[in-house]
Design a protein that fits this description.
The chain has helices at 3-12, 138-141, 269-277, 288-291; strands at 30-31, 39-42, 44-45, 67-73, 76-82, 90-92, 100-109, 112-119, 131-135, 145-148, 153-156, 177-184, 187-194, 197-203, 210-213, 222-227, 233-244, 258-265, 284-286, 296-299, 304-307. Helix content is 9%, strand content 38%.
Length: 315
């Protein structure tokens, strides 16, 4: 992995987080009453040549790269890039646009329509499909939802909203473990054990790997210069770490500890501002390689993410 690709990856980590912390900026998408009880939305893999899922060649990282969902907007179809480092789903207004607009436009995703806010962002790499905004964490927390990157689907259950636990469609989905999560300012925070230490991390699909803030390099790590979305540069170290997920149902081990790719960054000034605004005690980002092999069932009522059985490489 060369320094340029590492720098480009870091530019997407935590990139869209800060606006949701400002007054009036975290309002979430206004959802119209849906005529469908289940909304199955295909994912588009923006870094694949044909935009379709392709199994990784190994199980080491199992990251999937950039993903997006189609959104009908102003009589045409654009795409919202999925980035749960943002609490907010929003439309791009361009760099010269207003910092935040509460009602920027209405989009239709599958069988649901949303009135979305806008932010002064602009897509530098359109990926050939027409990115018009960001699909943030609120899309998964708004109603019970399932994120399944290996099947290429997000499934939302609008009819589950307001139903008692035990009577919802998501309650019948088989999972092997549950991870408590915190909703902090609309961001999804989880605690996992890495190299024998408990780390409180923000789940960020815009980041490919575990990003460990405040951690220096180790023997065998590759040293690179990282670059954030604002162009700031800083040293970082690419290597490996051992990940342990919480026990499964009944205390059984959900899966053995496994090695994952890790980015260790002693400093990340852009993201440190987000950490401070969220109250501190956040050790980095849970990027794609942390949960990338699992179906994830989001249950905001109970405050847990159910993990399905891990994806395994063929053969």
């Amino acid at each position: 992995m060369n320094g340029r690709s590492i720098g480009l990856m870091l530019a997407t980590c935590g990139a869209a987080a800060l606006c949701a912390l400002s007054a009036g900026c975290h309002s979430g998408p206004a959802r119209e009453r849906s005529a469908c009880g289940v909304n199955v939305v295909p994912l588009v893999y923006t870094e694949m040549e044909d935009h379709a899922w392709r199994e990784p060649e190994s199980e080491w990282g199992a990251e999937w790269g950039g993903v997006a969902v189609a959104a009908a907007y102003k009589g045409t179809v654009g795409y919202l890039a999925m980035d749960t480092g943002s609490a907010l789903t929003f439309l791009y207004l361009g760099r010269d646009g207003e910092r935040y607009v509460k009602h920027a436009g209405t989009v239709r995703i599958g069988c649901e329509s949303f009135d979305l806010p806008g932010r002064n962002f602009q897509e530098d790499d359109d990926r050939g499909i027409g990115i018009i905004g960001v699909l943030g964490a609120d899309y998964l927390l708004d109603v019970p939802s399932v994120f399944d990157p290996s099947s290429g689907l997000i499934t939302r259950y609008p009819d589950d909203a307001g139903k008692p636990v035990g009577e919802r469609a998501i309650d019948a989905i088989e999972t092997v473990a549950e991870i408590p999560f915190e909703d902090v300012g609309g961001h999804i925070l989880v605690t996992v054990r890495v190299d024998g230490r408990d780390l409180r991390l923000m789940w960020d699909t815009g980041c490919p790997h575990l990003l460990w803030l405040g951690e220096g390099g180790r023997a065998g790590d590759e040293e690179h210069t990282g670059q954030d979305v604002e162009g700031g540069q800083f040293p970082m170290y690419f290597g490996a770490a051992m990940l342990e997920l919480p026990p499964g149902r009944g205390g059984a081990t959900s899966e053995p500890a496994r090695e994952i790719p890790a980015l260790r960054v002693p400093r990340f000034p852009y993201y440190e501002g987000t950490v401070e605004a969220l109250g501190g005690n956040i050790h980095g980002l849970a990027g794609q390689s942390v949960f990338g092999r699992h179906v994830m069932v989001f249950d905001a009522v109970r405050g847990v993410i159910g993990l399905g059985a891990a994806w395994r490489a063929a053969g």
